[in-house]
Amino acid sequence: MAAGQVGQKGAPRRGAPLSILSIIWRLIGLAFIDAIAIGFAYSFFGGGLALAAVVLLVITFLINVVFLVERLYPLRWISPGVFLLVLMVVYPVLYTMYVAFTDYSGAHILSKQQVVDQLETQFYTPQGAPSLTWTAYRSDAGQFLIWLTDPQTGNKFLASDTGGIQPVDPNDSRFGPIDPADNLPTTIDGYTKLARLGTFQYLTPLSKLVITGNINGQPAQLHILSLDAAQEGFPRYAYDASTDSVTDQQTGTVYKAQNGFFSAPDGTQVGVGFSDFVGLVNFQRVVSDPRLSSAFIGVFIWTFVFAFLSVLFCFVLGLLLAIVFNDQRLPFKGLLRTLAIIPYTIPGFISILIWVGLLNPQFGPINTFLRSTFGINPQWFNDGTLAKVAIFMINTWLGYPYMLIITLGALQSIPSDLYEAAEIDGASIYQRFRRITLPLLLVAVTPLLIGAFAFNFNNFTLIELVTAGGPAVPNSVTPAGQTDILISYSYRVAFASGAGNDYAFAATISIFIFVIIASITLINFRLSRRVENLI
Prior knowledge:
Radius of gyration: 36 Å
Shape: elongated
Strand content: 5-15%
Number of helices: 18
Number of domains: 3
CATH superfamily of the largest domain: MetI-like
CATH class of the largest domain: Mainly Alpha
Number of strands: 17
Largest sheet: 10 strands, antiparallel
């Protein structure tokens, strides 16, 4: 069949011209994707996430190119997954790395421009500022228009929250008939003048109006003080980009940007802190900060031991059960296998909380049995060693069904001929396991063991729900507990140590954890290749 013809099932071959209907459906789909992406990008820009918005728009553009250019046909079905990977994985990683080089925290949560914008919205009223007389007009829609008069200059202004503050033009065509009582228009373009009693009724919403503009040629903000008076306010702070400083125009004090704050020479600060680039400061804290450096090595060793032993215990128990369930002579194998994997079907956090209740020193069934039978009452969560034992018990219960499933499948893939030949040669059960079962099993499950190790290295949920990192280390000034692993320790240092949310420091610790896990994973992959070569 020539290129461009239709195959047997009606699908156009590559290179064939698209039908009008196919093009229309493709454009509709892309328009739907583009609309969603533009909506998200708009919200990102509004929230100050310009980088995320740009990345999203670039990815959306590339998706359009891939689906509209026929030469890129092979990329059409994998491009959405690749682009989502970039957006959902690569971008957060890069953003975390960026945050690690800043002082982004609870005290420095806004950008510098946001802080400047906040300061520039503040106004002050100088001493001796003249009071303005005012009269309110109200539309049928409930909007207000304020007529202002400066008694010193005689200048008149019209103010509204939508139009700002504008000088009055006596010949304005919007003015209705003049009221001889006060020489003011009775109506102005759909707004009706309020009597004094009517103005009193709306005094609360009128006093909350925020109207900015120019009064007597100067930027000002209108403040309605009472039924008789309004006052003009002037911008208090002015930002100078050339000197990166903010000037208090009421006092003349200059605040320069220093260490994430606008600070005066005497150390006083204005406004809230802003996020700023600090270089390697957060990385230096890993070594120099006594809260972290004094306990980092101990926490790291325990993290490594915890991850290694968790995988070992789960693997050994899962393998033993798999060997038993793989025996053809075992009755009710299907039922027993089903019962054995039940812990894997229950959400982990539910199982963890159930175990915490079982191990409760006062009311738990386990301690009740131990007290009545052996006269002991282990304090599972107050003793560091017992807390670690409890963590291993719970994690083994949660993890062995997974190891059972993968090892059972691997055992069933080993040819029975190997066992028969070894048995003929006189090999014992142990020798057959040592020389045949274990090597072939490790070749199949080593990548899964590496993944399980990486998972347990960051098993924050287990540590937090069982012990919350406790018990505390005696006489320690660090927030680390005796069962804290690196991820829970960094969480406590960054978020739960009473020093405020230190997001930048948390990002720095995350980078250290990433480097450690990546290094261990590479080493394990090299070791697994050696195992394969030996076999």
